[in-house]
Amino acid sequence: MIEVVIDDRCGGCGSCVDACPSDVLAGGPSGKAVIVRQADCQTCYLCELYCPEDALFVWPETERVVGLSTEQALATGDVGGFRRDSGWGEHAATHTNQHWRMGAIFERARLMAIDAAAAKPAREQDGRTS
Length: 130
Fold this sequence. Notes:
The protein has 130 residues and is α+β, with helices and mostly antiparallel strands. The chain has a single domain (2-65, 78-124), classed as 2-Layer Sandwich (Alpha-Beta Plaits). The protein has five helices and four strands; from the N terminus they run βαββαβααα. The protein has helices spanning 15-19, 46-50, 70-75, 81-85, 103-125, and strands spanning 2-5, 25-27, 33-35, 56-58. β2 (25-27) and β3 (33-35) form a beta hairpin. It starts with a strand and ends in a 5-residue tail after the last helix. The relative contact order is 0.17.
């Protein structure tokens, strides 16, 4: 689940916002990404892949928010690791893209999105918006 947007690194490009299939991220008042719907995170790592500044940290826990701080995320040494290990961007020359290994996570994210879309009309009929 997405845990941290590292404000000092975020350049405000919006790539992570555009990549997120669940609208978990949005542009904040400063133009930088902010987490707005953390519980809807599918742990698909797309935001990490598309962030050229390594300003996002997704923890592999999919069921709950762990509550990591920026300092704790940086201390893991894994900030930007998924992007690097996937061979994206500047890492393409030194790392083989192993993105195919994410198939099970992407399938889970797809099924969650289908369930969420099906539940949305029911929530709206009940007068609930989220």
